[in-house]
């Protein structure tokens, strides 16, 4: 099983570790609800080093990636990032990814942990630009929550608050025990700091809260982790595991690769529609144009109207007939009720429409809603 550079820190904190996509990752440190509350009210720190990191650069990088992505990176300003889907020829989602224009002609493409090898091959086989898998040369930390900017500002002279949402920039972090650590020194042609830790910091995340994803050299990961927790103590920060991360993303209606899509669904079915730009050509577009003309199952949000907790695999019914299945479900601490993402058949996806979720052989009333479940953060 793979371990991230932060594994020693997780063990020292007494985290409960589980196998996630072949990685030994912390599911929780205290309780999922406590960690969830910390992110919504103060700040939480996650290890996301299991995610992939691909550098795509050189002549043809922008045009090549553009031909593979449902979203459009044409003219993407340096430092800006976008969310997109990669589709196969049938219009099925291979993965959902983040792409940042890191340096002129150089893009950072971030796939999910389990799909990184297949995404790398898919890109390499279809574009002429250089593709470098730097996943093992990067440690990634996600600092999330309304106090995250204040915490990070204590560690850098860069203007943290000035970094816009879905933008990235290089920053030097002032932490003990890791002076002069450059970020991807063998790949990127940038000046390394003489002191501190060089990081590529993006204002992004998977929780719906304000937050930052901090990429550093693996040898500096524990020092940066410890420094963030130390500076964040006065703000109520907590180390957080994948359990809280999953609950936080579900409340926002964010997709989980391999759970909410598994290679048999399209962007038209899953959304978000804003990640689909029809003005450019991309692999899978023709299939989507054909699918757009016929009814198909769609992923919707479900909010339970009665007591119960929906879970993956639960059947969804309408008028006594099976019409779909839950992909993700849990109890929302903020709403105090069960919420779910579920695929439902044609005629069952209108907001406000009542359906039933079968929980322990009992039908539980639910209504269709448009995520996010908890509103804009």
Walk me through this protein's architecture:
This protein is an alpha+beta fold. Helices cover 19% and strands 32% of the residues. A six-stranded mixed sheet has the order 10-11-12-9-3-13, with helices on both faces. It has a six-stranded antiparallel β-barrel with strand order 14-17-16-15-18-19. β18 and β19 form a beta hairpin. α2 (32-41) packs across α7 (242-252). The longest helix has 12 residues, at 221-232. It is globular. The protein starts with 6 loop residues before the first helix and ends in an 8-residue tail after the last strand.
Rg, rounded, reads 21 Å
Tertiary shape: globular
Total domain modules: 3
Question: What is the helix fraction of residues, given as a range?
Answer: 10-25%
* CATH architecture level-2 label of the largest domain: 2-Layer Sandwich
- H/E element sequence: HEEHEEHEEEHEEHEEEHEHHHEEEEEE
Question: How far is the N terminus from the C terminus?
Answer: 36 Å
- State the CATH topology of the largest domain: Gyrase A, domain 2
SS elements, strand count: 19
Structural class: alpha+beta
How many individual helices?
9
| CATH homologous superfamily annotation of the largest domain | Probable tRNA modification gtpase trme, domain 1
Order of strands, widest sheet: 10-11-12-9-3-13
As a percent range, the share of strand residues is 25-35%
Task: Output the CATH class name of the largest domain.
Answer: Alpha Beta
Q: Average the pLDDT over all residues and give the rounded result.
A: 97
Low-confidence stretches: none
Largest sheet report = 6 strands, mixed
């Amino acid at each position: 099983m793979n371990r991230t550079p932060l594994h020693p820190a997780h063990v020292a904190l007494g985290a409960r570790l589980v196998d996630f996509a072949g990685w030994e990752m912390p599911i929780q440190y205290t309780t999922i609800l406590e960690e969830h509350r910390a992110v919504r009210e103060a700040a939480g720190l996650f290890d996301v080093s299991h995610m992939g990191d691909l550098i795509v650069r050189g002549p043809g990088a922008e045009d090549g990636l553009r031909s593979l992505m449902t979203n459009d990176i044409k003219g993407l300003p340096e430092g800006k990032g976008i969310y997109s889907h990669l589709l196969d020829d049938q219009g099925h989602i291979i993965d959902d990814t983040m792409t940042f224009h890191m340096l002129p002609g150089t893009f950072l493409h971030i796939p999910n942990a389990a799909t990184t090898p297949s995404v790398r091959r898919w890109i390499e086989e279809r574009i002429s630009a250089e593709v470098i898998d730097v996943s093992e040369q990067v440690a990634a930390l996600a600092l999330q929550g309304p106090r995250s900017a204040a915490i990070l500002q204590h560690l850098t002279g860069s203007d943290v608050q000035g970094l816009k949402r879905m933008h990235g920039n290089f920053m030097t972090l002032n932490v003990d025990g890791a002076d002069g650590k450059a970020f991807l020194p063998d790949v990127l042609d940038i000046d390394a700091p003489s002191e501190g830790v060089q990081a590529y910091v993006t204002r992004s995340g998977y929780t719906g809260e304000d937050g930052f994803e901090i990429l550093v050299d693996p040898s500096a990961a524990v020092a940066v982790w410890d420094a963030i927790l130390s500076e964040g103590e006065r703000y109520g920060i907590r180390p957080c595991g994948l359990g809280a991360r999953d609950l936080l993303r579900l409340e926002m209606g964010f997709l989980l690769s391999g759970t909410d899509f598994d290679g048999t669904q399209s962007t038209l079915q899953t959304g978000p529609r804003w990640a689909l730009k029809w003005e450019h050509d991309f692999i899978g577009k023709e299939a989507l144009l054909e699918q757009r003309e016929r009814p198909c199952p769609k992923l919707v949000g479900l909010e339970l109207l009665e007591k119960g907790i929906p879970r993956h695999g639960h059947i969804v019914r309408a008028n006594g007939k099976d019409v779909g299945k839950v992909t993700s479900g849990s109890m929302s601490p903020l709403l105090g009720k069960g919420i779910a993402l579920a695929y439902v058949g044609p005629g069952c996806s209108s907001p406000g429409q009542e359906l039933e979720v079968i929980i322990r052989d009992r039908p539980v009333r639910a209504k269709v809603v448009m995520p996010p479940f908890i509103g804009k953060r």
